[in-house]
Amino acid sequence: MSDFTTQELMAIFAMQGFAGLSFFSVLLLMALGLAIIYGQMRVINMAHGEFMVIGAYATYLFSTFIADQMPWMLDYYLILAIPFAFLAAFIVGWIVEFVLIRHLYQRPLDTLLATWGLALIMQQGFRSAFGAREVSVRLPDWLQGSYRPTMMIDIPINGLAIMMLTLAVTLGVAWLLFRSRWGLRVRCTTANREMAGAVGINTRGVDRLTFALGCGIAGVAGAAFTTISSTGPTSGSLYIVDTFLVVVFGGAGSLLGTVASAFTIAQGQSILDFFIGGSMGKVITLLVVVAILMIRPQGLFASKVRR
Amino acid sequence: MNDKLDFLDGRSGLISLLLLAALILVIFPLGMGVDQLTLTGRFLSFGFVAIGLVLCWGYGGILSLGQGIFFGFGGYCMAMFLKLEASTPEATAIQTTPGIPDFMDWNRLTELPWFWVPFNSLTFTLIAILLLPAAFAYLIGIAMFKRRVSGVYFAIITQALVVIFTILLVAQQGYTGGANGITDLRTLKGWNINSDEALRTLYFITAALLLAVIVIGKWLLHTKFGRILIAMRDREDRVRFSGYDVANFKAFAFCIAGIFSAIGGAMFTLQEGFMSPSLIGIIPSIEFVIFAAVGGRLSMIGAVYGALVIGFARIALAEAYPQLWLFMMGAVFIAVVLFLPYGLAGLYEKYAPRLRALLPGRAAGAAPSTETSEVRS
Question: What is the pLDDT of residues B175-214, one digit of tens each?
Fold first, then answer.
């Protein structure tokens, strides 16, 4: 670190910071979905990465469809692909909850294992349907290139766009949770399931909708993912451990906690990777997170609701 | 049966144990060639980890998705010893620095790192295989259980630890052999471990150790420790209110599981002649849990069968129907969790008394083993 001038160091931090942004965005979207599900139902969905991949493949299918049928729309397909990805993951999530998850509510460890089995099945499904090789989407022109505020800082436009998307989704989720009737029902069920049922809330219906919504957000993460990387059957497993740690580290009940912990973990890895390299950045970040979790198991922003 | 052998769960338990012993000590060796026997030995070495999981997960309620770490501890310790023995200055004369393992030479190390040096001694290696995983498990266990981190959180943290471990192993390839691991192991104190005769002997050693570990595990469960373990799984707060230090007991269970896994890892290395990070990662660690779940999370003998059944099924099916195999694994896992929470052993316990009653001249309803009946309350 000593052979960089202060100005260069600032530039490096800025650049690595922005490079970490794409990772942060995808991680945050995944973690939001998982945090909603975990906060509401105490279900840890090991197949969450695969829902992201559903969104990614949906985006890929949509883009090939547009490229074939409506090539004049190619520049704008991404905007439309996002709701499509959301819907695809939402529907699959709904079905999964109905068929599998609802039998396992009182057994969190078993849910972990059953959803792992589901992840295996989904991965093989992807392999059979799309082939084992990775597929990628053609980025529209306005997303390519980068923005150079100064000579030394190079910010990819791609990363900025995903950040905007993530911000929009996060704000949308926050609004939904705190300003809508559905959000009210979710918060009631989380706080006291029996009373919520007693006042007439269909807790099972809320659970199903919540699970599907969490999966849908993972689908949006998948759409974002296609702009930074190619998609393969096992792409889901790239982010899953980090996503879990983000949720657990941020504190299960807190939106702000999820954002803060996703930011810390993503940027920590990104910046440390530059200076130390050889994957040690990831190792150190993970070690620090695990150590902090051992000292403070409830995470950064613990839920103030008494269980 | 006299009281001394009560811990083997009465007559039916003893019969199950003897059946398993007959299978792995007599039937398999008679019916299989050396290659198949070594393959079976590989599955048996996974069985050690599954038995450990039965103890800490089935009876203790502590789900660890990171048993690969301990398998790796045992495996790498043994591999380091064997590698040093195979890297004598005469054997490595063509290297830039003779006397050190080949991968270190490729990575331009010029002397043996300090933590490799003690592994020149077999005694140290054997002690390390037992103590290192126990120490690590105790540290992690105490740190987490004292903070009352349990259940899902604990499982996720063990997963994170596995990821950390694997990345470290692969990244520091000068010290650990990297992604390829430690390979080309030849002799154990001068005895060639790659010869057919040696492989057969190693198989028998593995099988015998496995049976010994089962007996030790069953004995543990019948001590006070075993009762407290089951109590902690079912009603941890009551155990705490009764004055027991829950964290220590849980950490101890986790240590035992770790030691068993390490023994498995060491035997794997001896039989297969290598150890690599691919046996330690997230997926192998979950597979160990699958073995225990399918075999029966409350049955140590069942866990061994689970490892054997899935191992052989994979060999048979994955070649014929590679696409089908992962579907089946996922489906089996889901089915076991949803419908067969006590695995094959549970099925056996449920239907064996009825089958026995059908046999002419036999008294109906032999006493079921206490392993599963305890849980059904």
Answer: 888 888 888 888 888 788 888 888 999 999 999 999 999 9
Decide if A15 touches B, using CB distance below 8 A.
Answer: no
- Residue numbers in A near B342 (CB within 8 A): none
b/e B190-203 (16+ beta carbons within 10 angstroms → b): eeebeeeebbbebb
B-chain residue closest to A46, CA distance: B156
| A245–B contact, CB cutoff 8 A | yes
Residue type, A302: A
User: In chain A, whose CA is at the least distance from the CA of B146?
Assistant: A294
Phi, psi at A297, each rounded to 5°? -65, -20
Give me the domain span that covers residue B159.
3-373
Written as one letter, the residue type at A17 is G
Calculate how close chain A gets to B57, using CA atoms only, in Å: 10
pTM given for the model: 0.87
Nearest-Cα distance to chain B for A241, in Å, is 6
State pLDDT tens for residues B122-159.
899 999 999 999 999 999 999 888 888 777 888 889 99
Domain residue limits, chain A = 12-235
The complex scores an ipTM of 0.84
pLDDT of residue A163: 84
Residues of B whose CB is below 8 A from A108? 151-152
Residues of chain A with pLDDT under 50: 1, 305-307
- Kindly tell me if the per-residue pLDDT of B96 is higher than 70: yes
Interface A–B counts its CB contacts (< 8 A) at 108
Please indicate whether, in this complex, the C-beta atoms of B164 and A113 are within 8 angstroms of each other.
no
Total structural domains within chain B:
1
CA distance A298 to chain B (A): 9
Assess whether pLDDT exceeds 80 at residue B365: no
Tokens in use for B13? 């338990």
